[in-house]
Write a structure and sequence with these properties.
The protein is an alpha/beta fold. It has one domain: Arginase, Chain A. Helices cover about 40% and strands about 10% of the residues. The chain is built from 12 helices and 7 strands. The protein has helices spanning about 1-10, 50-60, 75-80, 85-90, 95-100, 110-140, 165-175, 195-200, 220-225, 240-255, 280-300, 315-330; strands at about 25, 140-145, 180-185, 205-210, 230, 260-265, 305. α9 links the parallel β4 and β5. α2 (about 50-60) packs across α12 (about 315-330). The longest helix is centred in the middle third of the chain and has 29 residues, at about 110-140. It starts with a helix and ends in an 18-residue tail after the last helix. Keywords: Chromatin regulator, Hydrolase, Nucleus, Repressor, Transcription, Transcription regulation.
Length: about 350
């Protein structure tokens, strides 16, 4: 009965927009960016990075502003595909939201303001991740410039992650896209405990997680849900990281054949990130992303990328440079008309 209700909610959702070929599958809305009377600056996350990424891409000539796809905001019915009514109800208490986003003063802000300034931007990004799966299936790839809230599961938020956009995206793909085998490649510096709790016992979802095992969230219960884990130590450098990534991708392709790849491309692995505590160079991040896109291309699997964590002002520039590199290497097609090969540009 629960699955029937979930399927009904998915089928009645408006999040799967039809997108014109004049657009490219890069998804962003100015509503993503969080501005909350300056309070957002009390968290190290750069809550305006999403807009700056797109600004760089337009300035660099990789994209035109009118090519970017604007998603819809996820409704309560959409969120109920994964989340319980009790969890969503708990977000009507500003104190609970403050705990999740790790900004204590939010607890003292009227909830209607918390909703409009914090929850709505997150809901918009959820809509972007869900739509990204549809566009990836149609075009071969899609990038949600936001999303990647991998610490949120059906019943629990945390780590600046209020809604489980990756879990929602997968359930929509199961029902609407006839997808039955999904691989999550989580390369954020932190363990992706949210989707691991949601899909740990689901054979349709294969989870590869490469993360610093000595930092948040230290969720040992969720670790049981990881199909392939690569635990790093603080201070891991670029060469070692990329070698481990190569081996991990090779093993993953031998163990699982995905019909879709979801790539959680956190940039908190960068050298200097005080929360990620790894020492990966900017060029190393660009190479990492290229390797994942080549991996999906080799498997002929549509890939959707979300940007996830990253706690320095330099992150936006690195992400934009990486997307530009993917375009230059013909791993994505940023022209307005889709390639004659619907999976990948030549």
């Amino acid at each position: 009965m629960a699955e029937d209700l979930r399927s009904k909610r998915i089928q009645s959702s408006k999040l799967y927009l039809d997108v014109s070929s004049s657009k490219v599958p890069v998804i962003y809305s100015s509503s993503y960016d969080i501005s909350f009377f300056g309070i957002e600056k009390l968290h190290p996350f750069d809550s305006s990075k999403w807009g700056r990424i797109c600004g760089y891409l337009v300035k660099d000539g990789t994209l035109k502003k009118n090519q970017i796809v604007e998603p819809l905001e996820a409704s309560e019915d959409d969120l109920l595909v994964v989340h319980s009514k009790s969890y969503l109800k708990s977000l009507e208490n500003s104190w609970n939201v403050a705990i999740i986003v790790e900004v204590p003063p939010v607890a003292f802000i009227p909830n209607f303001l918390v909703r409009s300034r914090v929850l709505v931007p997150f809901r918009k990004q959820v809509g972007g991740t869900v739509l990204a799966a549809k566009l990836a299936k149609e075009r071969g790839w899609a990038i949600n410039v936001g999303g990647g809230f991998h610490h949120c599961s059906a019943e629990r938020g945390g780590g600046f992650c209020v809604y489980a956009d990756i879990s929602l995206c997968i359930h929509f793909a199961f029902v609407q896209l006839n997808i039955s085998r999904v691989m999550i490649i989580d390369l954020d510096a932190h363990q992706g405990n949210g989707h691991e709790r949601d899909f740990g016992n689901d054979g349709r979802v294969y989870i590869l997680d490469i993360y610093n095992a000595g930092i948040y969230p230290l969720d040992f219960e969720a670790e049981k849900g990881i199909d392939q884990k690569v635990k790093l130590v603080s201070g891991t450098k670029t060469e070692e990281y990329l070698e481990k990534l190569n081996r991990a991708l090779e093993e993953a392709s031998a163990r699982f054949v995905p019909e879709m790849v979801i790539y959680n491309a956190g940039t908190d692995i960068l050298d200097g990130d005080q929360l990620g505590r790894l020492k990966i160079s900017c060029d190393g991040v660009i190479t990492r992303d290229e390797k994942v896109f080549r991996f999906a291309k080799k498997l002929n699997a549509p890939l959707l990328m979300v940007t996830s964590g990253g706690y320095m002002k330099t992150n936006a520039r690195v992400i934009a440079n990486s997307i530009t590199n993917l375009s230059a290497k013909k791993l994505i097609d940023t022209t307005s008309t889709p390639s004659s090969n619907p999976k990948y540009s030549s």
